[in-house]
């Protein structure tokens, strides 16, 4: 996996898959989740409702990942993952790292060649930029190890998308 770091609007990137820092309802929210839903249009919400009806009636658990189509986005897929909410007492950084690992592994199973990640957990869920950067590093390292161990395909290109210069710097420090 080639990992690059950019400061950009994730909804405008020309990639195969975009990871959504979703809430467990999968029905949209604030921050990057709201931006992705707004840019993708009503088809994304319809697919998320179907996921809730069929596979996740109680919501998507923290650390797991699920895919839908991408609606009007340039991407082919949106991979939804739910970070632990630090403000609700969910402080296990391993769960945050699993968001990155499980999303990368799912992107590989879908056949994505490029996947863009936001700062999962770095917005309203209260994780610091440094913690998000370390979790991204640990999660993507874990995905690589699993890929080698189980001969799993992973996306060759991963883009970590920062919404601020502070977060971009934290990603860079974690991956240097």
What string gives the helices and strands in order? Answer: EEHHEEHEHEH
Order of strands, widest sheet: 1-6-5-2-4-3
The geometry reads as globular
CATH class reads: Alpha Beta
Count of the separate structural domains = 1
Beta-strand portion reads 15-25%
Radius of gyration: 14 Å
Can you characterise this structure?
The longest helix is centred in the C-terminal third of the chain and has 22 residues, at 129-150. Helix 4 links the parallel strand 5 (114-117) and strand 6. The chain has one domain (2-175): Leucine Aminopeptidase, subunit E, domain 1. Strands 1-6-5-2-4-3 form a six-stranded mixed β-sheet, with helices on both faces. The protein has helices at residues 31-40, 42-54, 93-110, 129-150, 165-175, and strands at residues 2-7, 17-22, 65-69, 77-82, 114-117, 157-162. With 176 residues, the protein is an alpha/beta fold. It contains five helices and six strands, in the order E-E-H-H-E-E-H-E-H-E-H. This is Macro domain-containing protein. Residues 1-176 form the Macro domain.
Characteristic key phrases:
Macro_dom; single chain; alpha/beta; six-stranded mixed beta sheet; Macro domain-containing protein; globular; Macro_dom-like; Leucine Aminopeptidase, subunit E, domain 1; 176 residues; 19% strand
Short description:
Helices cover 42% and strands 19% of the residues. By secondary structure, it is of the alpha/beta class.
Question: Helices, strands, pairings?
Answer:
Layout lengths: L1 E6 L9 E6 L8 H10 L1 H13 L10 E5 L7 E6 L10 H18 L3 E4 L11 H22 L6 E6 L2 H11 L1
Parallel strand pairs: 1-6, 2-4, 2-5, 5-6
Antiparallel strand pairs: 3-4
